[in-house]
Design goal:
Layout: H1 5-8, E1 12-13, E2 20-21, E3 23-28, H2 33-50, E4 53-58, H3 62-75, E5 82-86, H4 92-96, H5 104-110, E6 126-127, E7 130-131, E8 133-135, E9 143-147, H6 148-153, H7 162-167, H8 169-174, E10 178-180, H9 191-200, H10 202-209, H11 214-217, H12 220-233, H13 245-254, E11 257-261, H14 266-272, E12 281-285, E13 293-294, E14 298-301, H15 311-323, H16 327-337, H17 353-362, E15 366-367, H18 370-373, H19 376-391, H20 397-409
Amino acid sequence: MKKTLVAALAATLMSGTASYAVDLEVTHWWVSAGESASIAEFARIFEEKTGNNWVDSALSGSGTGANPVIISRIIGGNPPGATQMNTGRDAEELIQAGLMRDLTPIAEELGIWDFYADKSLLDPCTYDGKIYCFPINIHSWDWLWLSTAAYEKIGEPVPTNWNEYVASFPKLAEAGIIEFGLASGWPIAGVPGVLQAHVGGADLVNAIMREKSVDAVRGEDFRRFAQALDDLRSVINPDEMVPQFADVGVQLVKGEAAGNIHGDWLQGDLQVLGGVPGENYECLPALGLGTQLSGGGDSFFFPKLPEGTDQAVIDAQTELAKIVISPEAQLAFNLKKGSMPIRTDIDLSKANPCMQKALALLDNGLLPTGDLNLSSDTQAQMQDLSIEFINDKSITMDDYINRYADILASAE
């Protein structure tokens, strides 16, 4: 049962102790089996360490559906005690409006600059020199997931990169295997960026994200990316879409679908299904083509609570802020989430082969992402155009390129 923060302010006497526990509501959009298992680790450690109660308010719809609800609650004066959001510019206006708690004192106490794997992740959390959020993982969309069973059915080895995968489309179709498994809704949104980064290449991504170069959009690297997107749309069938991204994991394990581009959080659901890397599926970071990953992930924000809020609730906020980036919580959470931890000082020997591959690439630094470099409006325009291109085969590659260049020319 979900509780509002107002209801959560009442303190209750803890059984067998002399201290009081409080409820702290936490909003997030982690609702799949793998995601639920990972967030449960944060809740468990928070309750064990503090004696307080984690009140879980899960919201469906990922960032596109949950973000507006979270933002409206904060603006409306009914904020949760803590909230997960993407590491990016989604909370920028809330920070500017003074609605987010300044975490700088906690950051200084913990010395976070000494252990973050990539300091650039803290950039979107920083405003006027102060820290307003803590990134808690490094996620990347940049994965090609391939079904071992599907390729056994057609008698071919599992591809080692995107190009080999595309070359296998005709034989997969002949065998009645879905070439590219896809869930309806938001999962398609990350696919164009992955193709742009690893078929188009790192130079293209840097030119678009950092330099906002229209000339780069009209160049050969971008056209190569557009061709890859065209190859993909040729095998996407809306009638074959499944309801949730976790359902694609089921298709991969069973060999009903051959492949999928999706973020590393799919790994959490594959683990829940009993899937083992190298046995039931293969994971190819950077599509098997690149040496860097684009990196974003999730952050925890701590909204300013209404005047008159019990100090014990504010103290619980403080404790949770410390816990989500603690070594114990980082290890427990990320091993189940499938993401990379933000700390460089924890033992990851238990990480599975997919995470080990990602960690090896992390040494090469992260590619820039739209979340960190472009406004939400510009990102939305690019995403809408790419999805329109995928869905409407009458749009030519030249049309797509020209319209993309126009968006970038006015990018914020």
